[in-house]
Amino acid sequence: MFRPALKPFRFCNFQQIMNPQFQQLVVQAAARKKKRGSSPDQSKFGRARSRYRFKKLLSQNIKSSVFIIIGILSAGFGLKSFLLPTSFIDGGATGISLLITALTKWPLALIIIIINIPFIIIGYLQMGQSFAVKTTVAILGLAICIAFFPYPIITQDKLLVAVFGGFFLGAGIGFAMRGGAVLDGTEVLAIHLSRKSSASIGDIIMIMNVIIFSTAAWFLGIDTALYSMLAYLSASRTVDFLIEGIEEYTGVTIISPKNNEISIMIAEKLGRGITVYSGKGGYGKRGYTKDTNMNIIFTVITRLEISKLQLEIDLIDPNAFVVMHSIKDTRGGMIKKRPMAH
């Protein structure tokens, strides 16, 4: 008798016949179940991390706001109490605003806002929304400060006006930069142009200031332009001081065959941490020493400890190769936690 061949039974793939929307519901339900089943320790850790992040961001925003407010008040004081009454100018966007005000007698508060609008737009494109918002608030605050705050005129002496007007204006710009904003958008424009050309940021700023002070010399006179250049130098040095700070720390790299003894000395006598790099000899007084392996020591000390470190190194290895360089600031490690050894 003829019997038809029986096809083997095949199990259907459940995922193939399942509705895609139903699949998504199943996946979401599984994810919620997994999330509910997470351990209490993980949940506590997540909440603690969120609280720490919130406190850190809040603290940083408060600090930035304080810096910007101090910067606005200081810059307004420098402009209204020193530079404006004598028609002295500064470099950058502030200098352009002061020059226009001196020539047209238009209110400086309005000119500062108009001149800085393009720089705010460039800052938004280059630095992001947070930078643009902070800068907008800072410039508006400076304009309000100039328009409504009754700053007194401190002195009529031109030299004092140039030096201290530049100092307070530079302090205001520096504090605002510490807060994440700018009161003068020249550097933002310089960064933008440097990315479009082969010129450096410093070159672009110098060219812009040469044009500004040359124009001031033509319209306001040579004396006013020279005093304005002095005010600009005072302001720029103050900005550098506030941004970079006092060079309190010194990084020291030491290369010596007696690196173990030097490491122990730094740890025990100076109480400072060390980092050891593995290195190979190159070329020195003894010629090529490529096959010589040697540990390289790096440490960070304060300026007050430099002479003591040099003395201790000379006692261990007078021929040690020591390189020192300035460090603006440190974070973490032992340098700020342990007092100097006596």
Beta-strand residue percentage: 5-15%
- How would a crystallographer describe the biggest sheet? 4 strands, antiparallel
The shape is globular
Distance between the termini: 111 Å
> What is the N-to-C order of secondary-structure elements (H for helix, E for strand)?
HHHHHHHHHHEHEEEEHE
Structural class: alpha+beta
Strand order of the largest sheet: 2-5-1-6
Number of domains: 2
Q: What's the total helix number?
A: 12
**Over the alpha carbons, how many angstroms does the gyration radius reach?**
32 Å
Number of strands: 6
Overall mean confidence score, pLDDT: 82
Helix content: 55-70%
Structure characterization notes:
The protein has helices spanning 14-17, 20-36, 40-86, 92-104, 108-127, 129-148, 158-178, 186-196, 201-220, 222-244, 259-270, 306-316, and strands spanning 249-255, 275-280, 283-284, 287-288, 293-302, 321-327. It has 342 residues and is α+β, with helices and mostly antiparallel strands. The protein folds into two domains: 55-244, no CATH class; 249-327, Alpha-Beta Plaits (2-Layer Sandwich), CATH 3.30.70. The strands form two sheets. It has a four-stranded antiparallel β-sheet with strand order 2-5-1-6, covered by helices on one side. Helix 8 crosses helix 9. The longest helix has 47 residues, at 40-86. The model is unreliable at 1-18 (pLDDT under 50).
